[in-house]
Amino acid sequence: MIPSLPRPPWLRAATWIYVAAFVGFLFLPLIVVSVFAFNDAPYPAPPWHSFTLDWFVADGSTSRLGLFHDSQLLESIWTSCEVGVWVTLLSVSVGLANALLLGRHEFRGKQLLSVMMLVPLVIPGVILGISILAFASRIAQFGDDSLGLDLGFLRPGLPLVVLGQFSYIATIATLTIRARLARFDRTLEEAALNLGASRAAVFATILLPYLRPALIGTAAVAFLLSFADFNTTLMLVGGDPPLTVLMYGRMHQGATPVLNAVSVFLMIASAALALAMVRRPRD
Amino acid sequence: MTGRARPALSRRLGTWLLMAPALSWIGLLIVLPHAELAMLSLKAGSGAPQGGFSLAQYRTFFDEPEYWHTFVRTAWMSALATFLTLCFAFPVAWVIAKVAKGRAAAWLFLACMIPFWISETVRTLGWMILLRQSGVLPMLLTRIGLTAAPVELLYHDSTIMIGLIYTSMLFMIVPLVSSLQSLDDALIEAAYDLGASGPTVLRTIVIPHAAPGMTAGCIIVFMLTLGNYITPTLLGGKNSEWFTEQIYTQFITRFNWGQGAAFGFLLLALSTAMVLVGLRLSGQRFADVMGRG
Description:
The structure holds two protein chains of two kinds. Chain A is an all-alpha fold. Chain A folds into two domains: about 1-50, no CATH class; about 70-280, MetI-like (MetI-like fold, Orthogonal Bundle), CATH 1.10.3720.10. Chain A contains eleven helices and no strands. By secondary structure, chain B is mainly alpha-helical. Chain B has one domain (about 55-290): MetI-like (MetI-like fold, Orthogonal Bundle). In chain B, about 80% of the residues lie in helices and about 0% in strands. Chain B starts with a helix and ends with a helix. Classes of the chains: A mainly alpha, B mainly alpha.
């Protein structure tokens, strides 16, 4: 703090009590979720009985079904991963193209286009979902009626979920990659070109390595956002729900601590991803 | 310059090639779908012939008290949640930006971010286990003698409010911290030296300086709260009466797309209006605010 300022002891104490209470508030739900993943009781509620790993490993023979044997949950995790990978690939590549376009090219309507790219972030996810649902089914209907084509992928299902999530995650990818590109020293490229490198070689050996940290960071964020997305996904999902949608459904019915077990798994996975990101050397 | 070294034609071609993904994304996933949604919302009842436009779907919204009550309630609760989030986040952002030093500040900032790496469903599950009648807090309240029997803490408006504030916190703290960090300590010191009191400094120096960050945070939080689905429906149960739930009911459950589309546009209009008002109030540009968030 600014050292010369008067700060009475009560204010100092109050500040730290507030901060401690605040951090407690932030972590309380996560702690509670984790604790009840290991409670030997059929519902995630107090009192504490005893420690068990049933909600991870039970195979259903004791009327308990643990995470590792709950095929519906495992499938939904896999679905979320598949969707996440597609969204990540699409967002990073389109984000890179957009960054290059806005950072290096001049054309009419550039200002308009760059504002339009921000718009998806201010549209509520539910509305992105229903608008894409409506438009896709209009095209599917048209294909069916006029061309005799069966465009099944435009009906609610995973391809639409991927497109729906991509529609706003692409904005975030564009912003991050563009910010990094803006700090690039273009004389490096010119030097390489003067020395006779082809444009493709310059791109692959100079620009891409420079952008790598932003690309990897964007990929991690895109995957995480896709994994956690609910609003857009809910409107576009078909028969095979990703994890968030399945969990939501089960939470409505009052589910067993197996959901706590999944949550613990998610926390560990996010922590691992976060650590991997932090430990990468930064420039 | 490299641009001049190459023929203009191939450069133009490059621009067009790079524009293709952007135009398909914005055109096919944003502009055309919203045009379709607008048309759906303006279509005369499902039995009417093609091309008939009417405002019937919007009229239903105003005729049916249930609908506009939910809408007003969603807007009002989102505004309140935004304000409360700002109040709770501000002291913490101040501590991170100005009070804590070096590592302590970094750790505190990290602690504020960690919960948001985990999906909202998980965090909501935590609140449900804490607050429901058979949950942790009602049991503790009974045990220390505050209540005779466990009380139901879920399904109240205040429960929804706590959940909304919780889930919005990060989006307020990040812009606040970055705007407070750019405030020169010397200004605050000078004000004190000239005899200003703490509240005066806050009102005349800190808040005006942090206003862009506060606006950015409020815009983002209001928008996310308005569009939230999980938190109100799970923590509020049948009493949630949240507008996104109405949209879902019309669009997915009742398959009444026209009505759902009209609801969607009303929500979008409210959200957009708040963004524009926020920008106008603080005299900022849209692109700057989004870049900050």
